[in-house]
Design brief:
alpha/beta, Nucleoside Triphosphate Pyrophosphohydrolase, TIM Barrel, 8-stranded parallel β-barrel, 10 helices, 29% helix, 27% strand, DNA damage, 8-oxo-dGTP diphosphatase, Nudix_hydrolase, 8-oxo-GDP phosphatase activity
């Protein structure tokens, strides 16, 4: 049987995170394939194990730590010359003990925005981009708040640490929307936050920011817009797959729960949400009927974080 015909090796990989945003990487020791390359700790899922069980076992064997808190995150398939792997990533936020190199590997704490280690295994490199995304994605609500109040609330949230914003005002005249976009872009840039403009690729390009596209736009596009960040709104498995195919950096999957704006509309619910994102190679935010205190619940179901509209500005 050729390598191409062989089943993929399931691997549990750990993003072990400290409160300051740093995470642990390990350097593969001599004698292993890709010796000297850096990777996220973890190992192969054995027969009869779940990915989480493998994660707990591997981190105890490799690092001598006992996992007390871990969220399922993204999955990434990669074909090495010697193996085809499916990496199931977990974000490990709680553990007992201090990580120690039990298998001769080097260890280093690093950051997504400025990784201090190299080279990083090819399958692991793109994960850093996802780790640079905040856990809360705030969607504008100037239509209900009024522009002046919205900008005031935006200033307050940016000062409090908000770092990811989508400007979405469907009912606003284009001239007013452009003026608001310039004001929001200036504020986000000064705060070091990422801004994604909903729907308008050319305006996003003119402002030097990202774009967030609806599912209809994704279905019509032939390739990913050449912008710093591209987000996608999705509602089912097909739309999520299309966003991945076209190279979106993140997706928003909705509606998870009932919302006041769409009473009686069908919802995904948490079990279906978890099923849809279980194998996603890009971070997926949960949207619909959620508040910021739902973040832990969303992450336990595989979400990268939560996307909020009304609750974002309270």
């Amino acid at each position: 049987m050729s390598l191409r015909d062989a089943p993929r090796t399931e691997v549990a990989a750990a993003v072990i995170e400290r409160p300051d945003g740093s995470f642990l990487m390990a350097c593969r020791p001599e004698g292993k394939a890709y010796a000297g390359w850096w990777e996220f700790p973890g190992g192969k899922v054995e027969a009869g194990e779940t990915a989480r069980e493998a994660l707990v076992r591997e981190l105890e064997e490799e690092l001598g730590i006992a996992v007390t808190g871990a969220y399922p995150w993204i999955s990434r398939c990669y074909d090495y010359p010697h193996a085809q792997v499916n990496l199931r990533f977990f974000r490990v936020t709680g553990w007992q003990g201090e990580p120690q190199p039990h298998e001769g590997q080097q260890l280093a704490w690093t950051h997504a925005s400025r990784p201090e280690v190299e080279p990083i295994l090819p399958a692991n490199g793109p994960i850093l981009r996802g780790l640079s995304l905040p856990l809360v994605y705030a969607i504008s609500d100037a239509e209900n708040l009024g522009v002046d109040i919205f900008l005031k609330r935006l200033d307050e949230r940016l000062a409090a640490g908000l770092r990811l914003v989508q400007l979405r005002e469907k009912a606003m005249p284009s001239r007013d929307f452009e003026a608001l976009a310039r004001a929001v872009a200036e504020r986000c840039r000064a705060a070091g936050a990422q801004l994604l403009i909903n729907g308008d690729i050319e305006l996003a390009r003119a402002l030097g920011v990202g774009v967030h596209l609806g599912s209809k736009q994704w279905l019509e596009l032939k390739q990913r817009p050449e912008l710093s960040w591209v987000g996608a709104s999705c509602h089912d498995a097909g739309e999520l797959a299309r966003a991945v195919e076209l190279g979106a950096d993140l997706a928003v999957l909705s509606p998870v729960l009932p919302t006041a704006s769409h009473p009686g509309a069908p919802t995904l619910g948490w079990p279906r949400f978890a099923e849809l994102v279980a194998h996603s190679p890009i971070p997926v935010f949960a949207l619909g009927g959620l508040a910021e205190n739902d973040l832990d619940l969303a992450r336990r179901h595989g979400a990268h974080g939560v996307a909020l509209k009304g609750w974002a500005w309270r």
